[in-house]
Amino acid sequence: MDAVIADRYRIVRKIGEGGMSMIYEAQHVKLMRQFAIKSLLPALAHNEEAVQRFQREAELIGGLRHPNVVDISDWVELPDGTPAMVLEFLHGNSLQVRLQRGVMPWEAIARIGDQTMSALALAHRNGITHRDLKPENIFISIDDSGDERVKLLDFGVSKLRGVGRLSGVHKMLGTPSYMSPEQATGQNDLVGPSTDVWAMGTILYEMATQRTAFRAEGIEETLNLIVHSEPYPIGMLRSDAPRAFVDLFERAISRDPEKRIQTIEELRAGLRLALEPRNVYRLNTPVAGIPVLAPLPKPPTKPPPMGTAGVAAAIATPTNATVVSSPSSARWWIIGGLVAAATAANLVIALVT
Fold first, then answer.
1. Over the stretch 127-160, which tens digit does the pLDDT of each residue have?
2. Which are the catalytic amino acids?
3. CB 263 within 8 Å of CB 196
4. Rounded-to-integer distance, Cα 295 and Cα 336, Å
5. How distant, in Å, are the alpha carbons of 53, 106, 167, 261, 278 from that of 281?
6. What are phi and psi of 303, to 5 degrees?
7. CA 121 to CA 130: how far, in whole Å?
8. SS3 assignment, position 263
9. Pick from 17, 33, 36: nearest CA to 25
10. Buried/exposed code over 336-350 (b: 16+ C-beta within 10 A; e: otherwise)
11. DSSP letters of 95-110?
């Protein structure tokens, strides 16, 4: 597609295509700067509801000024009249691509999770539920200095509090593997901030294990897993998972509304605590290989008899018996035992802290 849109954006190439839209790389003819242009699919260009949803997405992004939300700078039309939004051009890859490299370090999980939830927190404060959180919509951009920054994408199916629901374009709003039980069972009136909490919990699981929490051969089977099954235990897939992280994940995907974490701020705070360096490297199991300290020897109630009989009795004492030849010797045994106990206690504290 070789065209200039709105007399200022020259289309360079097509980047991708989704269920409702296409993305192009474009260059401003005067500024020589790259932009991304997102337009509706031609088949939906004259669908009134699709256009309304697309316009709403642009308005939502425009109202969320946040470093972790993709920035929108213009609204234009393609030569055929199809509406399009002009977005910042991002260099990098989606979280979905990053996950193909393998399980992620805890430090990366903490950083990506924290930045994503920072953007979500702002959206929720503005009455917006994303409800299509998934690794494809979390972009890890790289700026000119080489620094990474999360950019939250695609608010196309977002739910805006107080605004009438659009229906008819998609019977199912969201991506099956990351849907909450209320989405999976069609209870759209229950969709709210805790819906994004559920999805974020499944994404944290996937970053930690490189495994989708809920996935089956078909959509129906996947939704059934969400409603009735539990994900494979994190600890069985990653032995170094902090106990606090596992507990946080389980609370994030609780089907019981009373037990599920209700706000993204609470989940964010919990992630910071669970993956704080002091907790990430804390041993989750008892330390192995440290000997159990024997009780201190006790002096006998009566000293052994002295003289020839006493010497004979001492020689005949079994090797595992307690032998105390004098009060002074007993005192040194006790002092030595206390020193050994204190040293071992300090070792245990150092290993489990």
1. 999 988 999 999 999 988 889 999 999 886 666 5
2. 132
3. no
4. 12
5. 46, 10, 48, 25, 6
6. -65, 150
7. 11
8. coil
9. 36
10. eeeeeeeeeeeeeee
11. HHHHHTT-SPPHHHHH
Distance separating alpha carbons of residues 284 and 289, to the nearest angstrom:
15
Tokens of 82: 């199809």
Tokens in use for 314? 């001492």
Tokens of 116: 């994503």
Can you list the domains of the chain with their CATH numbers? 4-88 (3.30.200.20), 92-280 (1.10.510.10), 287-353 (no CATH)
Report d(CA 300, CA 313) in Å as an integer: 14
Alpha carbon 289 to chain centroid distance? 34
pTM summary value: 0.74
Q: Which of 93, 117, 133 is nearest to 271 (CA)?
A: 117
* DSSP structural state of residue 42: G
- What span, in angstroms and rounded, lies between the C-alpha atoms of 137 and 159? 16
pLDDT tens string 281-331: 654 443 333 333 344 445 555 544 444 343 333 333 343 433 344 444 445
User: What six digits make up the tokens of 197?
Assistant: 């909490």
